[in-house]
Amino acid sequence: MGCCSCFGLFTKRHESPSQSRDSDGLLSDDLLICQDDYGHDGEDADFPLESDTRPPRSVKRSQEIILSRAQSGFVCRQVPVKETNKAFCHEDEEGNKMVNEYVHLRKIGSGSYGKVVLYRNTEDGKLYALKVLHKSYMKKVRVAPSETAMSDVLREVSIMKMLDHPNIVNLIEMVCGNGLGEIVSRKYLRDIICGLMYLHSHNIIHGDIKPDNLLVTSNCNVKIGDFSVSQVFEDDDDMLRRSPGTPVFTAPECCQGLTYHGRAADTWAVGVTLYCMILGQYPFLGDTLQETYDKIVNNPVEIPDGINPQLVDLLEGLLCKDLMKSIVDPGDRMSLQATAQNSWVVGEDGPVLEYWCRCGFGRRENHVQ
Questions:
Q1: Largest CB tally within 10 Å, which of 124, 194, 266, 313?
Q2: pTM of this prediction?
Q3: 217 φ, ψ to 5°?
Q4: What is the pLDDT along the chain (369 residues), one digit of tens a residue?
């Protein structure tokens, strides 16, 4: 597992003297900067606040749901996010580049729309990862007929303002390590399942589960990051058409260009991720995008000999499809809830328990159902 190239969301919260780091020695909030190709010459740059950039009507649906939840008190985060309107770029006395009170250290990742840079806060001495995005460019990039890349960022900001869970990331963490065995993979998978169950109970579809978006702390706890393509639903109707995730982690029904259930697609990606953690390779990969999609839809999953039979059953359950059907039915696969109770996942630790957050939204939904 490696460092994600473009993930997380960076916002800074107000901290009182009594607030401290979490159990992993990490801060729970971060910083987001959107730049329009400004340099470190003392010029100001605007942050992309929602009042500054209006999303298209199709994206506003998620925003309306999020606003409704906030007004109803269904927000997990206890401390509100601080929003800073200006990014002042300058240099310190030693010539180091700075943004506001943050000193530039080094670049740690990059993506299609920007980069991730490690900074040190001169006020508290702590390290922060800043996601620097090109706002003017993103406003022009169409990711769907009525959506721009900036729409995705605004939705990501809104979603992450709501969340507070030990397996959901608010801070970019350096991920290091080489091969993973069964013990480590089981631990990581349990954390992934726990975090994803939390998201799904809040009617949030992640949309891009993969190793690069799973961040491991110094205490070996996994946190799910990158909500740039995530979607929020008002109820259990999680039907989607757009499939913006990473191709090799795409569920077969998504490859067929039809509407699909977001929760089931997330769970498929969990299966691909587990396969990668155990075997160090993708289960379905072609030389071209179309060939990759063809293999995802038409090829059975291949698992080499010598793998734990319980693990084989789990992988086949997560990545199975009825090749006799022309249209893939996600109901043929193992659900996330069934995965949490699978014998290999349970091991000696017991079933993965659902996290009950302070906002009560998940409890409310379960009660209504």
A1: 266
A2: 0.59
A3: -85, 175
A4: 333 333 232 333 333 333 334 444 333 344 545 444 434 444 444 333 333 444 444 444 666 776 666 666 666 666 666 667 667 778 888 888 888 888 999 988 777 777 888 888 888 888 887 878 777 778 878 777 777 888 777 777 777 777 777 777 553 333 333 347 899 899 999 999 999 999 999 999 999 999 888 888 878 889 998 888 899 988 888 889 887 788 999 999 999 988 999 999 999 999 999 999 998 889 999 989 999 999 999 999 999 898 999 999 999 999 998 888 888 899 999 999 999 999 999 998 888 887 777 666 655 444 333
Q: What angle do CA 148, 269, 361 make, to 5 degrees?
A: 75
Q: Helix, strand or coil for residue 30?
A: coil
Q: Compute the Cα dihedral for 268, 269, 274, 279 and give only its sign.
A: positive
Distances (CA, A) of 130 to 22, 106, 108, 121, 140: 19, 11, 10, 11, 23
Q: Using CA atoms, how far apart are residues 306 and 276, in angstroms rounded to an integer?
A: 16
Beta-bridge partners for 216: 222
Catalytic residue among 29, 30, 164, 208: 208
Q: In the block, which residue shows the tokens 């995730």?
A: 245
208 belongs to the catalytic site: yes
> Does 12 belong to an annotated binding site?
no
